[in-house]
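Question (not urgent): is this output format expected?
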Amino acid sequence: MPEGFVKVLYGSSKNGFDLLSFLVYIVMNYGFIYFIQLLLQREVTSLGYYKILRFRSVYVWLWLLLKKVMRMSVLFLVCLFLVITVGYYIYTSNGSFSYSSQLDVEIVSIIYHFFVNGFLQLLLYSLLSFFIMWISKEMFYGFLTLFVLSVSMFPGMNPGNIIPVGLNSMGYLIDGVPLFQVTLILLLCIIGIMAILIYVTTKSDFNP
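Got this back:
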């Protein structure tokens, strides 16, 4: 895996920070989440009530919505992987990938972190945005919440990774953070948000 791939997706880490890498992370990840929020807002304001009546279950509606978000997240990651990989291939003069010996990271770890933890991170962002939008009735507040939580991506602002934001950054690979630990944190947060989301939607007047 080229060094450029890790640099482009560096994001941030516990011990290092680069403003350009941080901005690239925000644009790529939050840009995707913005389109997800548009989808979710349309579902809630225009189609949600009709679909719940049609399926006669808020659980079925949430599951179908979740599956759509997951498919879009997978497609986004695959496209991003191809764009960065092909872009780096074209960028190198000899048409081959270079791997820096200074980056003591295995290719398998990079791929796992990018696809598995990247997918879980995007899913968490989507669920959090949906939850905030549901209780506030405004898409803007979900987006604002993500930006506020992004402060935790600065070095020293997220001890123990208790705030699940930016955990899919490639910088965590450089720091040697256990990838399965990141996966577990994201999974637990996703389960927690899903449980709360199911509770508030079933108790809402939106539920027939």
